[in-house]
């Protein structure tokens, strides 16, 4: 066996996150819960948060079947509670390998009556909060980072930040486009010790998408080249991939996860 071959990592290990610690905001429902389950099944220790204590307890009860999970009640739209959340994780952990900025909000209203408050609420949670949490968590992320396996920040954007949605969600689409750009900017700022990438999901079953899927779920599935909406394993696999050593040479990327909707412009057909 050649020396070069001996130095190559075992292929399955490239995609492993076993033993890593992750914080997933908005991890009590929707794709946050899906990613938390996937991480636990993959051997990671997971912290989740929600502003609702009961939602935290219910999610923790459900997820505990799959591994080591801790839920922390925090409203991450509030800067002080962002700090409290990171302090709570830091009180239990000396290092944090993965931060997933998933918590988000949307707002729908016709253009002529769309309120200014919708921009305040949505941009705060969808753009400002990921920045603040990354800033606050940086010491923990740096502590987890190694030359062979940097720490990770994964921002959850949306295909609505890549294409123009047909819904009256002006502040939401603007916020997700901003989050994608913030991802690139943070990737430059934090490299090489922290890699920052984003996932831009299409339609997945969640509270945020419930009304849309009820009204147009069949149309959305039909417009998607793969003829369906997202499943738990789809978002979980993407999140595991971005947190693994398989993406050590990847930062500042926005990964569409939409069955081809954004790349084929299926939404506009």
Question: In brief, what are we looking at here?
Answer:
Helices cover 45% and strands 14% of the residues. With 269 residues, it is of the alpha/beta class.
- Average pLDDT score: 92
Fraction in helix: 40-55%
- Reading off the top of the CATH hierarchy, the class is best stated as Alpha Beta
Identify the overall geometry: globular
The quaternary organization reads as single chain
Strand order of the largest sheet: 3-2-1-4-5-6-7
CATH topology: Rossmann fold
Class by alpha and beta content: alpha/beta
By CATH's scheme, which homologous superfamily applies? NAD(P)-binding Rossmann-like Domain
Count of domains: 1
Give me the count of strands. Answer: 7
Q: What percentage of amino acids are in beta strands?
A: 5-15%
CATH architecture: 3-Layer(aba) Sandwich
């Amino acid at each position: 066996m050649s020396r070069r071959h001996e130095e190559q990592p075992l292929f399955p290990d490239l995609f492993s996150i076993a033993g890593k610690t992750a914080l997933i905001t908005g991890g009590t429902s929707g794709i946050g819960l899906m990613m938390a389950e996937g991480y636990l099944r993959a051997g990671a220790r997971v912290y989740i948060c929600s502003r609702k204590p009961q939602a935290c307890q219910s999610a923790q009860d459900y997820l505990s079947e799959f591994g080591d999970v801790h839920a922390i009640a925090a409203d991450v739209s509030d800067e002080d509670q962002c700090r409290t959340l990171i302090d709570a994780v830091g009180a239990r952990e000396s290092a944090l390998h993965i931060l997933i900025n998933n918590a988000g909000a949307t707002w729908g209203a016709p253009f002529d009556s769309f309120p200014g408050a919708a921009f305040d609420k949505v941009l705060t949670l969808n753009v400002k909060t990921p920045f603040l949490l990354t800033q606050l968590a940086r010491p923990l992320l740096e502590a987890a980072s190694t030359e062979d396996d940097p720490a990770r920040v994964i921002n959850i954007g949306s295909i609505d930040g890549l294409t123009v949605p047909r819904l009256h969600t002006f502040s939401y689409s603007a916020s997700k486009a901003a989050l994608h750009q913030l991802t690139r900017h943070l990737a430059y700022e934090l490299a090489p010790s922290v890699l920052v990438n984003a996932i831009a999901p299409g339609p997945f079953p969640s509270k945020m998408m419930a009304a849309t899927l009820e009204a147009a779920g069949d149309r959305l599935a039909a417009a998607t080249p793969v003829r369906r909406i997202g499943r738990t394993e789809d978002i979980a696999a993407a999140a595991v991939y971005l947190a693994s050593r398989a993406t050590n040479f990847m930062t500042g990327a926005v990964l569409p996860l939409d069955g081809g909707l954004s790349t084929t412009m299926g939404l506009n057909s």
